Q: What sequence folds into this?
């Protein structure tokens, strides 16, 4: 006895496959705590650029938070080392970039 068809045609089957794949990618992004991807490029330019700027800010905030958590989890000896100073310089650069993006 043949297996009953879930989809009426190949196009519907392909759409279902794409939706499943997109759901998996979205769930993976959420599980990592990352912000959603930028909106589609068919949006008007100003709105798209604003959305991309907000996405960049969110990514920078996420990186800053992870860097600070990493630094805080290290020993006191490590926090007084050159590596800690380099990490703090990177955090300061991210703060500067966030400040520049906030002005736009």
A:
């Amino acid at each position: 006895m043949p297996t009953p068809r879930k989809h009426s045609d190949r196009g519907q089957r392909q759409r279902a496959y794409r939706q499943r794949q997109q759901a998996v990618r979205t769930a993976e992004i959420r599980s990592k705590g990352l912000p959603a991807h930028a909106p589609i490029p068919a949006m008007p330019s100003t709105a798209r650029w604003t959305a991309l700027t907000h996405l960049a800010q969110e990514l920078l905030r996420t990186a800053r938070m992870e860097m600070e958590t990493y630094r805080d989890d290290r020993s006191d000896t490590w926090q007084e080392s050159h590596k800690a100073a380099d990490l703090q310089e990177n955090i300061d650069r991210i703060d500067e970039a966030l400040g520049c993006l906030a002005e736009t």
